[in-house]
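Q: Structure tokens for this one, please.
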Amino acid sequence: MRETTFHRIVSFLLGASWAIVLFGALITFKSLLFLGFFTAIFFAIFFVFVSMFMILALDAFVINRKRLEETEKQTKLLEELSKK
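A: Here is the predicted structure, written as tokens:
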């Protein structure tokens, strides 16, 4: 399978997004620990929840791209069948 530039960029952004989620939650937790353990946990979980939308958006791009490629294949096949 050939990997397009789009797939490479999205894969890189997905990896970076997961890193941001993990390290961001850790940094959020450690920086808010002075407010109390449960407050720090709450804000770290809130940060993870909000950051997951970044990952969901990138996954939506991948899914829509695959849907477009599949639709193009089907269109090509239908055009070949209609010519016969």
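A few notes: Residues 5-83 form one domain. Residues 25 and 44 are 5 Å apart (CA to CA).
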